[in-house]
Design a protein that fits this description.
By secondary structure, the chain is mainly alpha-helical. It has helices at residues 2-28, 33-38, 47-57, 63-75, 89-124, 129-143, 146-160, 176-210, 213-220, 225-262, 269-277, 281-309, 311-314. It is globular. This is Glutathione ABC transporter permease GsiC.
Length: 316
């Protein structure tokens, strides 16, 4: 319990640090949100109208006063309202976040289901044809930018072969089959980097475990190679793989913006890009804090999983 309490306390402190950094960084960005909101057709807005809007939005108050009000609202779970359309930030995030999480989860399942078996087989048959081919593919995927892969998937599978739709979104409740079909290509684009990273880490971890004394002992006792790998190699190799997987899943939360844009998937990327362009402070802060909080939550879950995989960690 002490281990869990310590990890939760650290996560809460990090959320406060991220909130503070994001708040101060946004207020240091050149540009006045009131002027941006009132500007039409490239013309300069009326200074009196700008001053009135700044007062109504609370932007004329000292920065520390705004910060104090921001932290107080955040402690109550209030992310404020958008400066652009006066829509609650929390409602916009709750509408779009499940779509982003669905995309990340689908990409993670695709990556793990392919990378882990491939890495284990490659490590057991290290130096063979499959190992060399799989390692080469992983290196290529690691270097290939996600927007390039997304564009290639659309060009080949949607435009040339016409096997898949180029992009879009249909609610699952409305048409489950169409929804999953539209999800497949962006999920593959999300999975490519994660699959390459998990493959390389898992292969190295399995190779390391195969050289351990307890594995040699298990073989000497006459256990079959399949049972040795399953019971004595894979589980111990999962600790470093879990570390990488947790970090990469957190990174995917911030890295799906390009994928959602390329495939027109209506997740958090659309309101985030619009909010940055219009200096919509509450929307930017709300989305960044949501992504950061989920990142920390994933890492907390990984820390707790370590304690399950290796009980010595919880006692440290």
């Amino acid at each position: 319990m002490l281990y869990v309490a310590k990890r939760i306390a650290i996560s809460l402190v990090l959320v406060w640090v991220v909130a503070t950094v994001v708040f101060l960084a946004l207020h240091m960005v050149p540009g006045d949100p009131a002027e941006v909101l009132l500007s039409t057709g490239g013309t300069s807005p009326d200074p009196y109208a700008v001053a009135e809007l700044r007062e109504r939005l609370g932007l004329d108050r000292p920065i520390m006063v705004q910060y104090g009000e921001f932290i107080a609202r955040l402690a109550r779970g209030d992310l404020g309202t958008s400066l652009v359309d006066d829509y609650p930030v929390a409602e916009e995030i709750l509408l779009r976040l499940p779509r982003t999480l669905e995309l990340i989860l689908a990409g993670t399942l695709i990556a793990v289901s392919i990378a882990l078996p491939a890495a284990t087989y490659a490590a057991v048959h290290a130096g063979g044809a499959f190992d060399r081919a799989a390692s080469a593919v992983a290196a290529i995927l690691q270097a290939l930018p996600v927007f390039v892969l997304g564009t290639l998937l659309i060009l080949v599978l949607a435009q040339w072969l016409r096997w898949m739709p180029a992009g879009g979104y249909v609610p699952f409740a409305q048409d489950p089959g169409r929804h999953l079909l539209l999800l497949l290509l962006p999920a593959v684009a999300v999975a490519k980097g994660l699959a390459a990273t998990v493959f390389r880490m898992a292969r190295a971890a399995v190779l390391e475990q195969l050289s351990r004394d307890h594995v040699r002992t298990a073989r000497a006792k006459g256990l079959t190679p399949r049972r040795v790998v399953r019971r004595h190699v894979v589980r111990n190799a999962m600790i470093p793989v879990t570390t990488v997987l947790g970090l990469q899943m957190g990174t995917l939360l911030g890295g799906t913006v390009l994928v959602e844009f390329v495939f027109n998937w209506p997740g958090l990327s659309t309101p985030l890009l619009r909010a940055v362009e219009t200096r919509d402070y509450p929307m930017v802060v709300g989305i960044v804090l949501t992504v950061s909080g989920l990142f920390l939550l994933i890492n907390l879950a990984m820390d707790l999983l370590y304690a399950v995989l290796d009980p010595r960690i919880a006692r440290s």
